[in-house]
Amino acid sequence: MKNILITGGAGFIGSHVVRLMVNKYPQYSVVNLDALTYAGNLENLKDVEYKTNYEFVKGDITDAKLVSRLFATHRFDGVIHLAAESHVDRSISNPLEFINTNILGTVNLLNAARMEWKDVMDGKRFYHISTDEVYGSLGETGLFTETTSYDPRSPYSASKASSDHLVRAYYHTYGLPVVISNCSNNYGPNQFPEKLLPLAINNILNNKPIPVYGKGENIRDWLYVEDHAVAIDTIFHNGKLGETYNIGGINEWKNIDLIHLLCKVMDKALGRAPGASEQLITFVKDRAGHDQRYAIDSSKLMNELGWKPSLQFEEGLEKTVSWYLENQNWMKRILSGEYESYYQDQYGGR
Ligand code: NAD
Ligand code: TYD
């Protein structure tokens, strides 16, 4: 493969994928198409922006003309599609943007790939990045497998589920060479501070309350973002067309336990007395329709393609905390403007 389109490459996971692809495959030419919404940040890609095999295009995946022009000029062989509205709480207050970007944007890309590849599908690949949230909510036991029925329950997960269905429909109807993966919660450097871990890290650092929804009993599986990027590289190159791969960290945590562990790591990193940061834990109103538990069975990916998570959670969390402490200017630049009004709406005066 030569010409790769990555969408959403200025976001959290996308920036790690762009970095990996640009550095690992100097023979590829990588185009990063990103609209630079509130979540997109070119600072995430400072270290690769001058590489000769990398190009950034500011644009919206819902812009059909732009997308088909890009396909025509760059002759993409592969697409890694990450661009999305990605935050559940924002989807609760503003579902329409999620429908627009996550569903219409994906169809737009599928149409462009279909037109461009209509004569030769051989060697082409459209890789759609999705989430475990499409499977809904688990009780105390069980794991999501690739054959678990879809049961999305938030506007975010419903929009991602729709896009997954459409990607599969293009495979069955038009023979478009697609592959899909559904991953659990990512954590690591460059994550926008609306998500639990960077939000809590920043609040602990600034001695602000750590908002824990409900009783903190919801459970998530956590994967270090660079491990997800390696899984994406593996599936992009070796995944079987038409297949779905689940990606998880084998690392389930109750939110409140996760926050306790984070407080411990932060106390140590900041030289605070043990137990100091825990005083900041504040239980707040629960999220509407809050999914109880996500847990992933990634044995298909591990057994068939040989991927596995590389980091133990405590090690990943320490690396993550160090990154945020060493990159406080990155955070400061984000914490102005749009984020301030979002935080006010979501958490009130806290
Ligand atoms: P993010 O919100 O950090 O980044 C999304 C990026 O997409 C941003 O750079 C944004 O500018 C861009 N974007 C948004 N709308 C766009 C549009 N209309 N046109 C072009 N670009 C647009 O998201 P993330 O956490 O990096 O997630 C990336 C992908 O991975 C998403 O598809 C998400 O559903 C999926 N995913 C995320 C997680 C997670 O834990 N964060 C887990 C599983 C799957
Ligand atoms: P989040 O990072 O938003 O990811 P997702 O909703 O996609 O799993 O939230 C992770 C978990 O943490 C989820 O159960 C909601 C909870 N949460 C809080 O308790 N407080 C917060 O301020 C946030 C943002 C999330």
Task: Give the strand order, joined by hyphens, for the main sheet.
Answer: 3-2-1-4-5-6-10
Oligomeric status of the shown chains? single chain
Global structural class: alpha/beta
- How many helices? The count is 12
Unreliable stretches covering 5 or more consecutive residues: none
- Structurally, the number of domains stands at 1
What is the count of β-strands?
A: 12
List the helices and strands in order.
EHEEHEHHEHEEHEEHEEHEHHHH
Helix share, percent: 40-55%
Quick one: CATH superfamily? NAD(P)-binding Rossmann-like Domain
Largest sheet: 7 strands, parallel
Radius of gyration: 20 Å
CATH-derived topology: Rossmann fold
Strand content is: 15-25%
Q: What is the 3D shape?
A: globular
> What does the average pLDDT come to?
96
Distance between the termini: 50 Å
CATH level-1 class? Alpha Beta
CATH second-level architecture: 3-Layer(aba) Sandwich
Give a list of the ligands.
Answer: nicotinamide-adenine-dinucleotide, thymidine-5'-diphosphate
